[in-house]
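Note to self: keep these together.
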Amino acid sequence: MPTSELTFRTALDTDVPELVALIESAYRGDTSRAGWTTEADLLEGQRTDPDGVAAVVKADTGRLLIAERDGELIACCQLEHRGDHAYFGMFAVRPELQGGGLGKIIIAEAERTAVETWGAREMRMTVIRQRAELVAWYERRGYRRTGQFTPFPYGDERFGIPQVADLEFELLVKPLGQRRRRPGSPRP
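Structure:
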């Protein structure tokens, strides 16, 4: 893994084309097979599109967090404030950089950001239940399966073209540590 420092920032409108390319490369098509997060055997077609990414970038309730190394976009994730919890989604790491510990760093930064920005007590996400290896990776990060499922949006090609039957999402949750108060600061 390169030794140069990883930096984080909130995505801008001008980042949308590069973000779409990153997300697509991590999940769809032959390029995604260079990493381990590919969904290419389950879904064809697009994972997202410029309008979907732009909506996340512009949302008042959250942000699209970008990870860069030497000014180059290498990963991203969506954070959305939803009351007492934050939603984590649109997580992508460049396929050729997957498997080297970068994902752990990104998700830890996302959790820290959710706690410090919104005081979130829990992080939630949905994962395709058929992605056993990915679900196991999240479980090793402290997320737990809830057994709450929602069906995949079959027939809506904005989310991909299913190659298998019975795809569904499972809700995963993780309690987040509380923000530490500075000595002498008032309680919230």
